[in-house]
Specification:
By secondary structure, this protein is mainly alpha-helical. It folds into two domains: 104 residues, Tyrosine recombinase, N-terminal domain (DNA polymerase, domain 1, Orthogonal Bundle); 121 residues, hpI Integrase, Chain A. A three-stranded antiparallel beta sheet has the order 1-2-3. Helix 2 crosses helix 4. The longest helix has 20 residues. The chain is globular and about 60 Å long.
Length: 297
């Protein structure tokens, strides 16, 4: 990834004769984008799709970056991808599928699903079918763990320790984490593994937990598409993405009195800054905790 960016920056300097300040802006924008992608296990530009780029832009939005800054990042990415297509490094330009003003239509704080809305989502899959059972198990895992989509699609049978209600995964920066599972999640994973997955897989050597109708591992695009379908069927009038489940998981734990350090451990964050969007969503809970625990409140 670094080589492509370095080549692009050299092109801007030698062929386009752009100023050093302009080139530094491109370098900063693409560098921040690469940092996010690499933190999420992406090592090649060929692996990046429009959904991942939307996650990048939404992450910048959650960091309260100015609209002008995000607008510049979008412009930098557009120019970079045009270069990649023109020089035959890529055949598909994911930026063509992203509206220029996409991030500015998003709310300043994360969209959160209520517990009732989570229940509505969980009831959508038709559990009389193999795919419906898979979808219910997938939703239960998302609700119970707050896992990233990249972690869910990489989940392996060997990562499951259902007898002790735990998952063991490798998250960003190759850090291993142990994540607890709820009883409903364990139940539906077991049902999926016993009654549904054997009907879906074609290759008996496949060890990925969640597979599609053809027996191949689920993709990021597949989960995004299914999420839109589930939300529509559940009649939820919010802009919901897989990331919404992650935000909702954290906020529900906070609202029910969970320790912030516990949430950081489960979600895989190593800096308090990363949890700030979740904290901002529930000021009433923060105030209540302050009154309860401060010695002179």
């Amino acid at each position: 990834m670094d080589d492509n960016v370095a080549e692009f920056l050299a092109f801007l300097k030698e062929d386009r004769h752009l100023s050093n300040n302009t080139i530094m802006s491109y370098q900063r924008d693409l560098g921040q984008t690469m940092d996010y992608l690499q933190d999420h296990g992406i090592s090649q530009w060929q692996q990046v799709d429009q959904y991942m780029l939307i996650e990048v832009l939404n992450e910048f939005r959650q960091q309260n970056k100015a609209n002008s800054t995000i607008n510049r990042v979008i412009s930098s990415l557009r120019q970079f991808y045009k270069y990649m297509i023109r020089h035959h490094y890529l055949t598909v330009n994911p930026m063509e599928m992203i509206d220029h003003q996409y991030t500015f239509n998003q709310p300043a704080t994360p969209v959160i699903l209520t517990e009732k809305e989570i229940e509505q989502l969980l009831q959508v899959p038709d559990v009389s079918t193999p795919l419906g059972i898979r979808d219910r198990a997938l939703l239960e895992v998302m609700d119970a763990t707050g896992m990233r989509v990249s972690e869910i699609i990489a989940l392996d049978i060997a990562d499951l320790h259902l007898d002790v209600k735990l998952l063991q995964i490798t998250g960003k920066n190759n850090q291993e984490r142990i994540i607890p599972l709820s009883q409903p999640a364990v139940k539906w994973i077991e049902t999926y593994l016993k009654n549904s997955r054997p009907q879906l897989i074609k290759n008996k050597q496949e060890t990925t937990v969640f597979v599609n109708a053809h027996g191949c591992p689920l993709t990021r695009q597949g989960i995004w598409k299914k999420m839109k379908e589930w939300v529509t069927e559940a009649k939820i009038k919010k802009e919901v993405t897989p990331q919404t489940m992650r935000y909702s998981f954290a906020v529900h734990l906070i609202e029910n009195g969970a320790d912030i350090q516990l949430i950081q451990e489960i979600l895989g964050y190593n800096a308090m800054k990363a949890i700030q969007p979740y904290l901002k969503v529930s000021p009433q809970q923060l105030s209540a905790n302050y009154m309860k625990y401060h010695p002179r409140a």
